[in-house]
């Protein structure tokens, strides 16, 4: 193992900085469609509000479907070829796809490019968190991943500003350009020493995704990790993305936009990720911090659905902000995923887990459509959100605590 990776006392390493900037661009591109959904679809000839909703959900599913595929692909490559190859390979793919997105002239083109962009977006966070977790001392890695998340989620706010000021096509061009510019920092980052040690051990099988499903205890742990991230994507994929539709059902006194809802939610996420990461370090417990935030999220989902009927748009956006704070445990979730498994499977888990959680939108959307049709828009959302939060709380309660865990080991 490289000595520099085991003796550093600062958390502001090249790996942390590049992972944070990479996640910044990742979030910018990931959430950009939610911001420009209505404007871009209107320009492509989709005017009817119901059709805008349906086509928007279709395009989100294409993007998230790509992330499901990409999560497996990049995760396996991360354990076989290294964390750095995935970190920068994924940035290159989603940057090129988003530049191409600025030229679309039809829904079909839009859909296929969102799929390709989704594949690219699937790799950056898991590879970055794995690299940071393996490069920092075990007592400080939570601070490193906290920095990655806090910087990263603010990319959504830049996405909103660019989308409003420069138009949706230019917003895609800017996102792609930022990603390509980030590639020049590759020379300043070194591969994980832990990975290099395992890579030298030819008898160790690396990146065997199927091995997660052949060992009952390992499978149970993996599934519980996945469930922790689902509530965040219920909030982002349903409550925030469909903010205009919820605003009309809630009888708000004025129109609200998905772009502003995303902006305020992700502004809250900046604070939430910082607070949850800091608390997990101060309390020496990832699980305790996650439980507190899941409870907070449950309360804020209730406020969103039942506490602001007839409110002003300003009040609605304020609730979106606090709701964003309550789901600010994303990087903590990915950190827990990385800490639960050995070096030969760590990138596979840390990359697939957040993308399967993001990809849960593919299941959440039809489930929401069914429940809203059977129970009503608000009750359907309440049932779906409540179920995802309760299951996530159970998952956290039954996972081993991973704070301060030595990560220099392999899965047999």
UniProtKB/TrEMBL annotation:
Pfam families attached to this UniProt entry: MFS_1
Membrane topology field: Multi-pass membrane protein
Positions in coiled-coil regions: none
UniProt entry keywords in alphabetical sequence: Membrane, Transmembrane, Transmembrane helix
PROSITE patterns, sorted: MFS
CDD domains noted in UniProt: MFS_SV2_like
UniProt key word Transmembrane helix: yes
Domain Major facilitator superfamily (MFS) profile positions: 15-412
Main location: membrane
Places the protein is found: Membrane
Record flagged with keyword Transmembrane helix: yes
Record's GO cellular component terms: plasma membrane
Entry's transmembrane regions: 12-36, 56-77, 84-104, 110-131, 143-163, 169-189, 222-244, 256-277, 289-308, 314-337, 374-396
Gene Ontology MF term list: carboxylic acid transmembrane transporter activity
InterPro entries: MFS, MFS_dom, MFS_trans_sf
Protein name: MFS transporter
Originating organism: Hymenobacter sedentarius
């Amino acid at each position: 193992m490289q000595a520099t990776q085991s003796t550093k006392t600062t958390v502001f390493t090249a790996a942390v900085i590049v992972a944070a900037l990479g996640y910044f661009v990742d979030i910018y591109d990931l959430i950009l469609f939610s911001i420009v959904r209505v404007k871009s679809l209107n320009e492509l000839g989709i005017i009817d509000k119901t059709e805008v909703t349906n086509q928007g959900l279709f395009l989100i599913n294409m993007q998230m479907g790509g992330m499901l595929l990409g999560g497996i692909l990049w995760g396996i490559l991360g354990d076989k070829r290294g964390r750095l190859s995935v970190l920068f390979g994924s940035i290159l793919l989603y940057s090129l796809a988003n530049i191409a997105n600025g030229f679309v002239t039809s829904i079909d083109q839009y859909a296929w490019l969102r799929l390709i962009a989704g594949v690219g977006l699937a790799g950056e966070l898991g590879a970055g968190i794995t690299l940071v977790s393996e490069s920092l001392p075990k007592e400080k890695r939570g601070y490193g991943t906290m920095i990655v998340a806090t910087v990263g989620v603010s990319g959504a706010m830049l996405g909103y500003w660019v989308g409003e000021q420069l138009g949706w096509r230019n917003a895609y061009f800017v996102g792609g350009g930022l990603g390509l510019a980030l590639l020049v920092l590759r020379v300043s980052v070194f591969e994980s020493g832990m990975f290099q040690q395992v890579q030298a051990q030819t008898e160790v099988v690396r990146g065997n995704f199927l091995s997660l499903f052949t060992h009952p205890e390992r499978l149970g742990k993996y599934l519980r990790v996945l469930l922790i991230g689902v509530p965040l994507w219920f909030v982002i994929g349903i409550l925030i993305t469909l903010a205009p539709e919820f605003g009309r059902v809630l009888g708000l006194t004025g129109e609200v936009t998905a772009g502003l809802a995303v902006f305020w939610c992700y502004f809250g996420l900046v604070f939430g990720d910082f607070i949850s990461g800091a608390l997990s370090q101060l309390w020496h417990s990832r699980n305790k911090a996650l439980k507190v935030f899941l409870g907070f999220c449950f309360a804020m989902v209730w406020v969103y659905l039942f506490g602001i009927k007839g409110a002003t748009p300003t009040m609605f956006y304020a609730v979106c902000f606090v709701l964003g704070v309550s789901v600010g445990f994303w990087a903590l979730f990915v950190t827990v995923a990385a800490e639960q498994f050995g070096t030969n499977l760590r990138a596979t888990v840390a990359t697939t887990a957040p993308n399967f959680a993001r990809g849960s939108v593919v299941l959440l959307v039809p489930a929401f459509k069914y429940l809203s049709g059977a129970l009503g828009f608000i009750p359907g959302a309440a049932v779906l959100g409540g179920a995802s939060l309760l299951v996530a709380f159970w998952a956290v309660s039954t996972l081993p605590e991973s704070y301060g865990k030595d990560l220099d080991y392999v899965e047999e």
